[in-house]
Every structure is written in C-alpha cells, then in structure tokens.
Amino acid sequence: MTGKGRRDFCVECRKETEYLLQKKDIVRNIRDKAYTFGITVAVCAECGEEMSIPGLIDKNVQEIDEQYRAVEGLVSVDDIEKLMKIYKIGKAPLSLALGFGEVTIPRYLEGQVPSKEYSDIVKTALASPVYMKQKLLENREKLTDTAYKKAMAAADSIESLFSVSDKMLRVIAYVFEKLEEVTPLMLQKLLYFIQGIYSALYGKPIFVEDCRAWIHGPVYPEVYDLFRDFKYNPIDDARFALLGGTEDALTNDEEQTIDLVVNTFGMYGGKVLEKITHNEDPWMEARKGYGDGIPSSELLSKERMMKYYIAVNRKYGIDTEDGLQAYIHDMLARVS
Questions:
Q1: Are 197 and 318 in contact (CB under 8 A)?
Q2: Burial zone of 329 (CB within 10 Å; 0-12 exposed, 13-18 middle, 19+ buried)
C-alpha cells in the first residue's frame, strides 16, 4: 500500500511526511489469556517509525474487539443489530425476550463483551426462528403486547419463509461465502451441479430437496420461493444471517464438492450455465414432450442426475477442477 496522498506529522522526522498503512501483530492479555491480534499501524515513509494519526486508536480498538469475539466465538454488535431488525424489536424488549436483564442488550450495543452463555443465546436466536419463538413465549409476561405481537409475527413469517432443509441453507450460505455475487438464476444452476456431482462421487444426495425441470433449466422451487422474497441482494438483507447459522454443518467432502463447482461452474453467469443444463440428459429427458415455450415443472429425479454424472465422471474425472473444466469446455463448444 503506498503512502501517496496520506500525510501527517512524524515526531521522528519533525515534519509532515507521507505514511504507509501496514498490519502488525501484537499480543494482549485478556482475562489472564494471551491473544495475538493483527492491527493497523501507520509507518513513516521516510524514517520507518510508527506514527500516531487521527482515528487509528479507535480503529485498533475495533480490530481487537472483532478478532477477540471471532476467536472466542462471541456474538458481534452487528449480529445483535441484525437480530433486532429481523424480529422488529427494540434493544430493551429484545433483552427481556431473551431472558436477560433489561439493560443487557443496550450494554452489548455500547461495546460491552457478552459472556459465552449469553452470546450463545443471541447466536441461536439469530440462527433459528423456532428458538426465537420459544424465547418469546417463555418471557411473554415481560413484554408489552405490541412488542410481543410484532416480534412473534416476524418469527412466524421467517419460519415459513425458511422452509428448506438446514443442509440446503448451509450449502447456499457456503456458496455465498465463496462467490462475491450470485444471481438467483446462477444459484439454481450451481445447486443442481453440486447435487449431481456430489451424488456421483459419494453415491447419495447432498440435500433432500427435489429439482424440477423448468423452462430456464433445473430449479429448486423452495429456493426460488425463498429468494423471491428478498427484494434486493440477499447478502445485504438482515435475514441472510439466518443462512449462516444452521446447525447442520457441512462435512469436508461436501465442502470440497462445493469448492469444485464454485471454482469451475462458478466462473460463468446464469445464462451460460442454463445453456449447459439444457444440453444435459437429465433436463432434456424431463422436458420431453414439451415445447421450448411451454411451462413445465417435471421432476428432475436425483437418480437420473446421479446416473448422468457418474457417466460424466467416468469420461472426465469430475473429482478434479481440471476434469470439470474439460467437461464445461466440451459442453460450451456444443452450445456455441
């Protein structure tokens, strides 16, 4: 990182100089335990000594706080704010709803670090509308009618919205973690490839949802309904936090398969992926008897997908990125 445009007074040089922003590891003891944190420091471009610039101390405090919470698995201020937004509930009512003292959540929002026990309660509430409803019911008498009804209505809405399996949610969350931008069309095709390739490699599906052969290629209707409700980029929606908190974590085999798909098929847009699926046997077989413009929602069975990708694996070796790239290359040559 260059120092061009960044200048401040260097006490060693005794003049205004340019400076560089760099990362530096420091060790801090918190509750009798040593932690190593990476913080941002300003270094003089002329003498190499550290400089004190406005706002850097506050930035370092924030960096240490975020890293400490991450290491200890503690909920962040951002997570608490998302929880309030998702359930349309204020900070004091949320505190009471979770069984805390009325000022606990307000203190956390001001920067106080929560205990592991209380942090886990907040994280579970953020991950599960069912758990949030349970806490609301348990602490019903502590809340006003307005706060209770509004939060419960939000929980009911979210519970019905997130009707897909935990495994599907976790797969979707992992895909979003790996790719910066995923359109609904692209996501549908990636899920189809993940299901087909995983089943071919391991002899079983990765998630339970059935795929359908729609006009624009394979589609998981439950996922279509889920993201239709997001009015803008899902990652920017507070409810997206619910995707990352599912209990049904991914295995190493599942993560490796998703990585294979993301690093190959994930390089292409939804329309290109649609063309590939339109030339694969599973979709073509399911669409037999239907014209290009005729809607259909025929089942694209897991068995048919598995059988197809087992054959693809024999020819290309789709347990490697090179094998998948060769397959994609051949399919694109066919549709061009």
A1: yes
A2: exposed
DSSP 35-90: EEEEEEEEEETTT--EE--TTHHHHHHHHHHHHHHHHHTPPPHHHHHHHHHHTT--
Q: Which residue ranges in the chain fall short of pLDDT 70?
A: 1-5, 160-162, 228-248, 289-296, 336
Token digits of residue 101: 């003292």
CB 316 within 8 A of CB 264: no
**Helix axes 184-202 and 166-178, enclosed angle (nearest 10):** 110
Which of 34, 29, 106, 119 lies closest to 69, judged by CA? 119
Q: What are the φ and ψ backbone dihedral angles of 37, each rounded to 5 degrees?
A: -120, 145
- Counting Cα atoms < 13 Å in the Cβ hemisphere of 310 gives 12
CA angle, 18 then 24 then 25, to 5°:
170
Chain mean position to CA 161 = 17
**CA 240, CA 82: separation in Å to the nearest integer?**
9
Q: Which two tokens stand for residue 282?
A: 């599973």
Q: Where are the alpha helices (DSSP H) in the chain?
A: 56-72, 77-86, 91-97, 104-109, 116-127, 129-138, 145-161, 166-178, 184-202, 221-228, 241-244, 252-262, 270-278, 281-286, 302-316, 321-335
CA distance linking residue 176 with residue 270, whole number of Å: 15
What type of residue sits at position 194? I
Q: How far is residue 294's CA from residue 313's CA, in Å, rounded to a whole number?
A: 32
Determine the pLDDT at residue 334. 84
Sequence ranges of the domains in the chain:
7-72, 77-161, 166-335
Gap between the terminal Cα atoms of the chain: 43
The CATH number of the structural domain formed by 7-72 is 3.10.20
Has this prediction a pTM greater than 0.70?
A: no
